[in-house]
Design goal:
The protein has 163 residues and is mainly alpha-helical. Helices cover 66% and strands 6% of the residues. It is built from seven helices and two strands. A hairpin with a 7-residue loop joins strand 1 and strand 2. Helix 1 packs antiparallel against helix 2, helix 2 crosses helix 6 and helix 4 crosses helix 5.
Length: 163
């Protein structure tokens, strides 16, 4: 059985036999896989009146366990400060997060979930995980573990490490 990436790689190999197109076999599949996964995740988020950006902020605050500063949110979600501000504005308008002065010293701002935001992320998370589980169900336990290790190795080789 062949997938769409096999077709593309074969075409390139026929048209440019002088060029090693084997990296496309991996990168093309990662890209195609993300497109398919992202479409499924967006559908799950939509069922909770969320998008991936909103889910990301709510999940980051939930797993953090305590209020976070916008800078901490930016680092945890790997987006720009402008993107965090835009996301927070949207979530605050919906009553899902609040921004308040930092209680410890009155300087800076901290962001926390409202009770409504907490309830929403607690409802959405199990559905999100069920979607992810379904998407990975073709893998055996060993294949899953091997894929996790291989992807971690690639990410680390590209400098994506938690320091």
């Amino acid at each position: 059985m062949a997938d769409h990436v096999d077709f593309i790689v074969q075409q390139w190999a026929e048209q440019r036999p002088d060029v090693d197109v084997s990296p496309m076999a991996v990168i093309g599949r990662l890209k195609r896989l993300w497109q398919l996964v992202d479409a499924e995740l967006r559908q799950t988020f939509k069922e909770h009146d969320l998008d991936s950006a909103s889910f990301d902020v709510l999940a980051t605050l939930r797993r953090g366990g305590t209020p976070l500063s916008p800078t901490e949110l930016m680092k945890a979600s790997m987006v720009t400060s402008g993107a965090v501000t835009q996301r927070l504005d949207k979530l605050e308008a919906r009553g899902l997060v609040v921004r308040a002065e930092r209680a410890s010293d009155g300087r800076g701002v901290q962001v926390e979930l409202t009770p409504e935001g907490l309830a929403l992320i607690d409802r959405a998370l199990p559905d999100h995980l069920a979607t992810e589980t379904r998407l990975l169900s073709a893998l055996s336990g060993t294949e899953f573990d091997e894929l996790v290790g291989t992807l971690r190795k690639l990410l680390e080789s590209l400098g994506d490490v938690r320091g």
